[in-house]
Design goal:
Length: 505
Amino acid sequence: MSESTGRRRRRAAVRGGRRSLGIRTLRVVVWTVSSALLLGCGATWYAYHTLINGLTTSDALDAVREKAPPRLDNAVNLLLIGLDSRKDMNGNDLPRKFVQRELHAGSSSIGYYNTNTLILMHIPAGGGRVQAFSIPRDDYVQTLNGDGSVQGHFKIKEAYGNAYTGAHDKYARQGVKGAELEARSREAGREATLATVQDFSGVPIDHFAEVNLLGFYDIAKVLQPITVCLNHPVQDRYSGADFPAGVQRLNARQALAFVRQRHGLDAGDLDRTRRQQAFISSVTHQLKSQGVWSSPSKLQGLFDAVKKDIVLDSSWNVLDFAQQATNLTGGNVVFHTLPIEGFATRNGQEVNLVDPEKIKAMVRQEFGATPSPTATAAGAATVAPATVDVHNGNGAEGQASAALSYLAGLGYTAGTTGNAAAQPVTTVAYGPGAQQAAQQIAGRFKAAAPAAGSAVPAGHVLVTLGENFALPGPRASSPAATESGSSSPADSGPAVKAGGVPCVN
């Protein structure tokens, strides 16, 4: 690739950096729009080139393909990314009055470069139902950089911003400025997000699309009014949502409030996730049923919005995707939300606790993998091999033995028990070859992020119980109940099926 071509791509990547909480909706809408547009126009040469000329592209997938999990089949896995950013593609703040009046959002310092929307879609190679998983933004996971190095344990939404900040500081020290600095920094953020989602889900990502808050608004302006349905009336000063119960038609400003609201909803962010899934269903239904493709002005508006506000991976052949994507426009999509195990506080932030191995097993099974014969009846994945030693720093007699028995029952090899100095929080250390087991155990015991221990033998995990230790109860009980005050975890809730206008909270 020539230097000028690379420079154009990096600049294009900058322009595509903007994301929003409504992005998940925007992305599917955008690709539903573009693929359906091509299909509806007979995928003519003119339609194809009108769309691809001026598209913003990114090479971020190139950096993470080598370390991607193995493929399950020839299907396409698509990640839709939405940034809660109030900046334009060059990193400039959007006009304050516009942000407050139209987007009903705060300053650019609030959203930063958080990926508040992540949807992983599986499009079968031979046609059939599309499976999609929304990943809650506050899931507490191990985040990675694009080269596979570990950032630490953070909310999954922070992987992008952490990498962006590190890259921005590095390149700025090298004298890089302006649009080029923004482009390179955002590319690092994309690579980190892709690497983290692949690691968390256990499946490779073939293509991705990214959009921002403004992008959602621009597309909603073209498609308005948009029909949605609510189970209950809502009013929220933070997002600007103020809607009665029942079916209603929204303009662009209202649509953005609809998909951004989380305050005042029973399940908070998880209800907001289902709002956005339902919105996608409503928009794709509208695209199919209302003859959008026969309106030259709407088509031109959609083309302009896609090229202005969306970033696509550079290997994505739009025409090929259009041939695969008929199920997106036909409503044959089922949206799931990845489950959480409960709530807790980590590093001063409220987070969702998750079981990474269970997540991987669930995603792979829904995406067509044969379930492991060693998986439990509850669908939990096989534990990573390790010998576990438990030391009691909890202060209550018998806790180390109880914890070791529990872990042995899960399939780990029982090691030794002993006592340790009292400590407030359970910690997990691991020897060579036992990092995966340590991560599994830390997640179950509400422990701090596991760390390598120089004195821990190879293949061993050392668990030191803290005052916060409690044996995990049955699945109906939250593993973080004592921290959060909640008696049960928030589950993923019912699936949202596309093909109409679903009613949601």
